[in-house]
Amino acid sequence: MTYGEIAKILESSPRAVGQALKRNPYAPIVPCHRVIHTDGRIGGYNGIKDSKKKIKLLKQEGVRIIDGAIVKND
After folding, report:
1. Catalytic pick from 6, 17, 21, 32?
2. Which of 13, 16, 31, 74 has CA atoms 20 to 30 A from the CA of 5?
3. pLDDT tens for residues 21-61?
4. Residue 7's pLDDT is what?
5. Is 20 a residue whose pLDDT tops 90?
6. What CA–CA distance (Å, rounded) separates 60 from 74?
7. What pLDDT score was predicted for residue 25?
8. Residue 47 in contact with residue 23, Cβ under 8 Å?
9. Which pLDDT belongs to residue 46?
10. What are the φ/ψ torsions at residue 48 (nearest 5 degrees)?
């Protein structure tokens, strides 16, 4: 899901969703690392702009990532 999709469900803003997710004390058990930008970019993880850990978690789950964006399977 994207930050925007979650924001729409919660009647909130994508930035508010990002702020809440960066404070997730249960990450990665509660998988906030699966939330991405609308354009497929990965974004940060746990309030850190460097997304290396987020990319590592996603790749462990079988997600293909090229140039910092998720590659959708057709």
Report:
1. 32
2. 74
3. 989 899 889 999 999 998 888 888 877 776 888 899 999 99
4. 97
5. yes
6. 20
7. 92
8. yes
9. 77
10. -105, 125
- DSSP H helical segments within the chain, as ranges? 3-10, 14-22, 52-60
> Do 43 and 37 form a contact (C-beta atoms < 8 A)?
yes
Instruction: For residue 27, give both structure tokens.
Output: 């990450």
The verdict on pTM exceeding 0.85 is no
3-class DSSP assignment, residue 66: strand
Residue 63 contacts residue 70 (beta carbons within 8 Å): yes
Is 32 a residue of the active site? yes
Residue 6 — φ and ψ, nearest 5°? -65, -40
Residue type, 26: Y
Residues 27, 16: Cα–Cα separation, whole Å:
17
Overall residue count recorded for the chain in this entry: 74
pLDDT at position 68 is 82
Nearest partner of 67 among 28, 46, 39, 33, judged by Cα: 39
